Amino acid sequence: MAPDYVLAKLYVAALQLRGVPARLDRIESRRAADGVRNVGPGVTQTSSIGHRAKLHAISTGLVDAVPEYTSQLLFAINPDAPILRATVRRDSANPDAEFDPVFAEMTRSLPQETRSLRPSRAERTMVIAVRNKDPHIDGIRTYSQLADRCERFSILIHAYPADVLEMEHWAELVNRHYRCTPKSLLTETTVTSGDDVVLTFASDPLLLSGDWRLLTDDLHSLAAAYIFPLVAKSAVDRPRQLIFDELSEKLTTTDVAELLRVEYRTPDQLDQFITNWLRAKGFSGREK
User: Fold this and answer.
1) What residue segments make up the domains of the chain, in order of their start?
2) Banded pLDDT at 214 (limits 50, 70, 90)
3) Please, are residues 114 and 230 in contact by the beta-carbon 8 Å criterion?
4) In Å, what is the CA distance from 267 to each residue of 1, 63, 127, 230, 272?
5) Is the pLDDT of residue 106 over 80?
6) Structurally, what CATH architecture does the domain formed by 128-214 represent?
7) pLDDT recorded at residue 38
8) What are 149-163's pLDDT values in tens digits?
9) Do the Cβ atoms of 47 and 3 come closer than 8 Å?
10) 170 exposure class (CB count in 10 Å sphere: 0-12, 13-18, 19+)
């Protein structure tokens, strides 16, 4: 289950419903490295190639738009950016404003051929969640409270196959902010009834079940990673930008989790689910 694939399908469907030609393209690592040019409004399909390969594909004209994530792309471009080390309070970051410091720094770091469009409120930030109604963990509400007792718990990194390497990378960064080491830190694609603490992305469908409670990141371990379209300046005109901006305005973290759940459980229904979602959000037919 690759979030880039699902979001790219959403981008393409939104454009097509408004009468704008678009297609879904797959970026292969070899093609991205070769810099093959593919003319037309293509959108990347996979997340497994990583942020740098997507950036290269946009810069060289292989595709016109890719889904990206603010702090995660900035880390890929400039891992030594001070804003990432200082960490931004999540309640102070405003995805609608150009003054969000992480988004602003990321935008300044982009190659000149690329452009970041309006970020959505939907997040792919790394989060920690604990199981509800577990007496051993019921009183824990914040990262610092977990850190004080983390040696008692086994923490699961919940990662779908396409996300394993990136998840483990971010888990390592989060762990640096802890004052202790958990009993164990394992990576699995499934969660069992014995798992009480998980590290995952905010858009993980697992969190839709109601069985999990997100902890408050009072340690400000990681800056928020808002979802946004990264585009080629030469390929995305004003009509396309307006559609992308409208989509960002309406997309939420819960929406992304729902899309990923459909893709994971019933992939043959994903296209219809996306179409229904877009129509419910006002994307039916051509914009007048």
Assistant:
1) 3-33+49-123+225-281, 128-214
2) very high
3) yes
4) 9, 24, 26, 25, 10
5) yes
6) 3-Layer(aba) Sandwich (3.40)
7) 33
8) 888 888 888 887 767
9) yes
10) buried
- 226-241 pLDDT tens trace: 999 999 998 889 999 9
Compute CA distances 56 → 60, 74, 97, 102, 115, whole Å. Answer: 6, 14, 26, 21, 13
What does the pLDDT read at residue 60? Answer: 87
pLDDT greater than 90 at residue 39: no
Dist. CA 156–CA 242, nearest whole Å: 40
**SS3 (DSSP) at 145:** helix
End-to-end CA distance of the chain: 35
Q: Interhelix angle for 3-17 vs 270-280, to 10°?
A: 50
Cite the DSSP H helix spans in the chain.
Answer: 3-17, 29-34, 51-59, 70-77, 82-86, 101-109, 143-149, 164-175, 238-250, 253-265, 270-280
Q: For residue 87, is it left (φ>0), alpha (ψ between -120 and 50) or beta? A: left
pLDDT of residue 151: 83
Q: What is the CATH number of domain 3-33+49-123+225-281?
A: 3.40.190.10
- pTM, whole model, 2 decimals? 0.85
For residue 84, what pLDDT is reported?
A: 64
Q: Which two tokens stand for residue 20?
A: 């704008």
